[in-house]
Write a sequence for this structure.
């Protein structure tokens, strides 16, 4: 029998071989299709990651300007220092080869330089010194396999240049610097809770920085550089760059001088009254809703947001031992100081809310301005007795007297004329049941009794602002509608958005939601609120020469302190001019701790101070009566080197007395030589060349009346310049803020400036 394969065996073998070949071919085809078509993007991405080095170019963030185009926030160019571990290792290998070659050359020629090779320890140590960063941290990143490792961000240009120079001198291509941006806030703490700040990664997390982040952030660019199989960059033609698109900028309605005036007043408020839950204030245009200023004190430094500025809180945390309790306290302190109290916290508005009750009743004609409202010190609603704040009976009052007296029983009676249905309708119409829509993040929602659930007892408490919790921004927005003709307007912080070339991207026009009351009722309310200020100057925002309207408020924090004996919120809302409102101010002082808590005591003085400072800036000037003109201060004219008789005539014509010292014919020295002083004061003229001006000690004027202060200065041979809203008001007293300070030695005739405050009265 032959052992050669038969033809059938050959056929079967060939068939088997061809089957294997076919299967292999099919597998190869399948694999090629899968790689080149199905998974093409995956392999292309992997190849690119090995062949291309990508660097992100951070887009410059848009600036934030105040209404006068002064910078509140801006981004400056800084650098991110990085290393490429692959190139670093190659640089070290190349330097070792070069060092070995230099040794060989030195053996042949002793004059030849022997090169020192680079070491990873030497490179990281030098970087550590230049960047003031831990060497071990840099070393660990240089050991990684990824091509791009950030060493330090926000490096200034001079330091980046130093690092580049070091890398170039030592032939290290694995160290580089990319441009990025760092946020700077030139005004530091100014408007901090409004502007907000950025997360470490560069996006906004608070305030306008967060709300308008999409506009401000821009679009990052990218640079792609081709590399060979050893990580070396291939020549320039293989480099692709995609430019970063700069972010748009915000132009605010806020003005730095107005913002500063508000923050300075709030700072004095917290220093005097130490509110446990901080103080906040808003300045707004009641006609357009433009927010001219907004602040919460204590605030924080935008350039160093982790620093706690409340000295009491900072000291308490510093005294804690390290541990969870301290960490929790610190986190709470940060959350508190970064929060914008004006929009993110709710409170009982108290008597300021009475303007809403009164205007609603006038609009519905359930009351008239001449109608009488009984006080009686107490009014019974169902089985609940409601007491007036005063310890005496206000008697029968017209609406404007009830508003001036802030009489709770009177306003409960006014609220009852509306009933729960109508009261609820106006509460909603004035915007208290929904957020205002202000362009800031974190706006809180009010807590209120709906008209469907409201009882007559709820209505009684609601009528004088003690049942519903609202935000300060809701209160000032509704108050604006009361005085601006009846229009509820959306408050707006940003006026417009512009691109990097100054072109307007978006312009924000005033948004009128609806008309709540008629123009006639609004005019009546302005007259009533002006009457309150003019006829009860103490405890209000009265400023001589200005028409001011306003109302104070004091509420009990009944949800925290049901007895209503300890926790209060004092507030005050004022506007000017009363007959044509251009500005409105709200100050809210949450839980003052130093004994006083009425809004007339803890808030009204600071609302007045804000108005005193900003009205002239806004081009609104005082208008005095003839009687007032006879009392106000005059500007002293300098008569030095003038003939004595002419000098006397000039100064006496201003209503000033003149005391001539010496026998000369012309004035050598005049005290005071300039400034403003009260009429009737004395100017001293020295006529001898060698005359020495007499000196005297400045007395303390604190607590004295105008007449007493004048007498004390007359005795010391000094002149008085009264300042403040009560500068010429009967019964006003001088404060401690006098200049020069008590005890200083000054020249006789010098002017002493002191602020006078109205007598404090116990009113809400």
């Amino acid at each position: 029998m032959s052992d050669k394969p038969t033809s059938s065996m050959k056929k079967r073998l060939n068939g088997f071989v061809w089957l294997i070949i076919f299967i292999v071919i099919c597998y190869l085809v399948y694999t090629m299709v899968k790689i080149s078509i199905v998974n093409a993007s995956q392999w292309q991405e992997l190849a690119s990651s090995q062949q291309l080095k990508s660097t992100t170019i951070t887009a410059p963030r848009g600036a934030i300007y105040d209404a006068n185009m002064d910078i509140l926030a801006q981004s400056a160019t800084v650098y991110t220092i990085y290393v490429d571990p692959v190139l670093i290792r190659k640089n070290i290998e190349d330097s070792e080869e070069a060092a070995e070659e230099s040794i060989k050359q030195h053996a042949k020629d002793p004059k030849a330089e022997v090169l020192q090779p680079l070491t990873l320890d030497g490179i990281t140590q030098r970087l550590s010194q230049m960047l003031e960063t831990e060497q071990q941290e840099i070393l660990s990143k240089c050991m990684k396999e990824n091509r791009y490792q950030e060493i330090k961000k926000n490096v200034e240009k001079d330091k980046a240049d130093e690092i580049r120079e070091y890398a170039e001198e030592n032939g290290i291509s694995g160290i580089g610097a990319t441009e990025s941006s760092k946020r700077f806030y030139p005004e530091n703490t100014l408007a901090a809770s409004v502007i907000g700040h950025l997360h470490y990664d560069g996006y906004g997390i608070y305030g306008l920085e967060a709300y308008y982040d999409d506009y401000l952030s821009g679009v990052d660019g990218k640079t792609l550089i081709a590399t060979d199989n050893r990580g070396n960059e291939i020549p320039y033609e293989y480099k692709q760059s995609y430019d970063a698109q700069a972010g748009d900028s915000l132009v605010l309605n806020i003005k730095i001088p107005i913002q500063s005036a508000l923050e300075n007043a709030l700072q004095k408020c917290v220093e005097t009254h130490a509110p446990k839950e901080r103080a906040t204030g808003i300045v707004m245009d009641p006609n357009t809703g433009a927010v001219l200023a907004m602040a919460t004190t204590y605030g924080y430094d935008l350039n160093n947001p982790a620093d706690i500025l409340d000295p009491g809180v900072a000291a308490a945390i510093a005294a804690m031992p390290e541990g969870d309790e301290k960490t929790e306290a610190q986190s709470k302190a940060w959350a508190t100081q970064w929060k914008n109290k004006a929009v993110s916290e709710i409170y009982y508005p108290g008597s300021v809310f009475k303007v809403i009750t009164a205007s609603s009743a006038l609009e519905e004609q359930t009351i008239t301005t001449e109608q009488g409202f009984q006080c009686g010190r107490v009014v019974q609603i169902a089985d609940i007795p409601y007491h007036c704040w005063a310890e005496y009976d206000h008697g029968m009052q017209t609406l404007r007297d009830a508003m001036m007296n802030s009489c709770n029983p009177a306003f409960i009676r006014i609220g009852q004329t509306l009933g729960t249905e109508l009261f609820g309708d106006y509460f909603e119409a004035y915007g208290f049941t929904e957020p205002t829509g202000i362009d800031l993040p974190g706006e809180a929602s009010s807590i209120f009794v709906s008209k469907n659930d409201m009882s007559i007892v709820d209505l009684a408490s609601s009528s004088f602002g003690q049942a519903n919790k609202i935000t300060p921004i809701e209160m000032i927005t509704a108050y604006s509608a009361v005085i601006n003709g009846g229009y509820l307007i959306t408050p707006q912080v940003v006026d417009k958005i512009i691109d990097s070339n100054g072109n307007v991207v978006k312009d924000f026009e005033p948004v009128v939601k609806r008309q709540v009351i008629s123009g006639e009722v609004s005019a009546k309310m302005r007259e009533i609120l002006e009457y309150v200020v003019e006829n009860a100057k103490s405890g209000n925002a009265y400023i001589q020469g200005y028409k001011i309207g306003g109302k104070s408020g004091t509420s009990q924090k009944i949800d925290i302190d049901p007895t209503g004996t300890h926790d209060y919120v004092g507030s005050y809302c004022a506007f000017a001019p009363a007959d044509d409102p251009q500005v409105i101010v709200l100050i809210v002082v949450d839980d003052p701790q130093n004994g006083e808590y009425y809004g007339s005591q803890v808030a009204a003085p600071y609302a007045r101070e804000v108005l005193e400072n900003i009205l002239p800036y806004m081009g609104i000037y005082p208008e005095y009566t003839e009687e007032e003109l006879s009392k106000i201060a005059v500007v002293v004219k300098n008569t030095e080197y003038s003939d004595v008789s002419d000098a006397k005539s000039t100064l006496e014509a201003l209503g000033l007395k003149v005391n001539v010292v010496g026998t000369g014919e012309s004035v050598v020295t005049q005290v005071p030589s300039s400034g403003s002083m009260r009429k009737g004061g004395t100017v001293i003229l020295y006529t001898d060349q060698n005359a020495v001006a007499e000196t005297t000690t400045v007395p303390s004027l604190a607590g004295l009346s105008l007449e007493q202060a004048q007498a004390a200065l007359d005795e010391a041979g000094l002149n008085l310049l009264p300042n403040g809203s009560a500068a010429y008001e009967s019964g006003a007293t001088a404060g401690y803020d006098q200049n020069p300070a008590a005890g200083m030695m000054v020249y006789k005739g010098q002017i002493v400036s002191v602020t006078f405050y109205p007598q404090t009265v116990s009113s809400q």
About this structure: The mean pLDDT is 88. The chain has four domains: 17-54, 57-250, 342-623, 627-757.
